[in-house]
Amino acid sequence: MLLRATRVRSNFAEYVPIALVLIYFLETETQSRMWAHILCNALLAGRIVHAYGVSQLEEDYRFRVTGMFLTIGVIISVSLRLLGNYIFSAGT
Q1: Would you say 13 and 73 are in contact if contact means Cβ atoms under 8 Å apart?
Q2: Could you read off the pLDDT of 10-19 as tens digits, one per residue?
């Protein structure tokens, strides 16, 4: 049980800071609070689902995969949006 709890917290510490920093950059660059709220809600939902899936004694991988999909999806979508904004702003 302790190993599972440690893994949930360390996984959180690996992914959430970078996601929040990227969301902050997106919000300050685009001044769009709506996207920041949507992405933070998706990140929160992903982390809750992942933590629930990993913390169960008989782990259900559907929860774990769904949580990681949401978390990585947020990171990738914000990164692509920031990259796209940079490319389009550099061209003008």
Answers
A1: no
A2: 888 889 999 9
Rg of the chain, C-alpha, whole Å: 15
| CA–CA gap between residue 49 and residue 64 (Å, rounded) | 7
- Could you give the CA distance from residue 5 to residue 48 in angstroms, rounded to a whole number? 13
The pTM for the full model equals 0.85
Report the distance separating Cα 52 and Cα 35, nearest Å.
26
What is d(CA 33, CA 5) in angstroms, rounded to the nearest whole number?
33
What is the greatest pairwise CA distance in the chain?
Answer: 55
Say if CB 50 and CB 11 are below 8 A apart: yes
Backbone CA torsion sign across 69, 47, 26, 18: negative
Q: For residue range 12-52, list pLDDT tens digits in order.
A: 888 999 999 999 999 998 877 888 999 999 999 999 998 88
